[in-house]
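Before a colleague's protein record goes any further, I have to sign it off. Would you go through it and say whether the fold makes sense for this chain? Take the sequence as given and treat only the tokens as open to question. The record follows directly below this note.
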Amino acid sequence: MGVLIHLFVGLHIIGIAALLGGFLTQMKAMGRGTARFVPAMLHGALTMLVTGVALVGLNQADDNTVNTVKIGVKLALLIVILGLVYVKRDDEKVDRNLFGLVGLLTVANIFIAVLWT
């Protein structure tokens, strides 16, 4: 079970890398006001959602303790990110404040994962 959990952690990290990487590639465009949500951001957020749910289930099945408050906060942030990226995915340009909010929520989600013990 431990190998499976580690596999899903790796996939979860790939998802966050796609989401954050997509955001970072658009930083220059954000400065010009022409940033858009690239497909990598949507796919990364979806990957994070699926692997995160799988990780909670696998950890509970393995009798590991799961901090449900932390998971709930991370899930809430991810749902907001996913909703914004999904709704605005076809727009040629996204308001820089909205785009910046997605980046801020993504970074917040990372720090919650790392620092909240």
Summary: The two ends are 22 Å apart (CA to CA). The CA atoms of residues 8 and 26 lie 27 Å apart.
